[in-house]
Design goal:
This protein is of the alpha/beta class. It has one domain: Glycosidases (TIM Barrel), CATH 3.20.20. Helix 4 runs parallel beside helix 5, helix 5 crosses helix 7 and helix 9 runs parallel beside helix 10.
Amino acid sequence: MSETLDRRGFLKIGAAAGGAVVLAACAPELKPSPERERQSRIEFGFNTRFYTSPNEQLLHLDRFKTTCDQLAALQIPWIRFPLWDWDIKPESLPKYDEAIDYAKSKGLKVFLVTNVDKLSADPRKIDQLTRKTRRQYELLGRRWGDKVDYWQIFNEGDDHLDDNYNRNPGFPFPPGYLERRRFFFKTAVDTLRQAVGEEHGVEAKVTTNVSKWVGADAGVNPEEVVYFDAVCGFVNPGGAITKPCGDLNSITLDLYPDLDPNEILDLPRQVSYFSTRYGVGEQDGKKDVIVAELGLPERSTRAHAKDWDPIHQAASIIASIRSLNSGPVKPRLVFPHEYIDTKAREENSHEGSFGIMYADGTPKESFEPVIREMWRIQDQP
């Protein structure tokens, strides 16, 4: 695929989508609110990832670079990807140097997801883990502070334990969990901001996120509010807020409304709620909100979703984008999840089929309509 393709030319690769462009009709065109003048338009990006293992066959660094080429050609300005905690070692970090440098060379803005590996509830390990957290964010801030445009610290801490990512903490959260999350988040953000400021003379923009899948987290949920409150350092999580949350530049939501029309139509209310709740001290009383993940798998093992396909995928994403764009407070950034599948088609993977491209780089029927909808919103006056 040529790197010189413009938007019109690039979409020729999606010609096989045929009638998929009519999907716009599946998504309601909601009337914009007259109150939504805070930001002129949503900015868009895509989620992706890569692995540094020499045995990686699909999501290697060259594939990441191809994604950067394509996003630049499509005039999609942001790319979001994780720095895997197991890659924070001398032999792996040069691959991330190369990835970040390549993304920046293409004019992309970088949203980097970071974590601290295997935090522990054992009080005997607190000092050791504190030193580890400080070393990590000192290193990252000095290394990439002038290249990373947004830093995410921790991923979906409301749904993933800090000492075992594959387990859900449940709600109410276990004793000591919120205090531990707050302590290590505060340690990370203070270290990162100091390192970036000293080394590069700029401010590190920082966020963290919660998971919102309609099957478990429809609407606004207490665990999300309590989690954000705790990360912000509020002494009474879930209670009234009387001071700014200075440690977060934005509130970040991962939205998975599936094809539920009520949840899709409720997205503006959710964005407005979080923006207003954490807007104390902001110039206009609103905190920026980022939608870091918005997607639908086009293959599913769930009984209610076993017939999903790329047509359903596009319908969900487009309807959600239109709904988000209609609210009184628009999200600052929206990242459909994700650009390319993480598993080959023959694996029939639910988690591996969120991409609008197959793992071999072939566009799905969802590709063209989703891209065109993003352009439509970005190009609004």
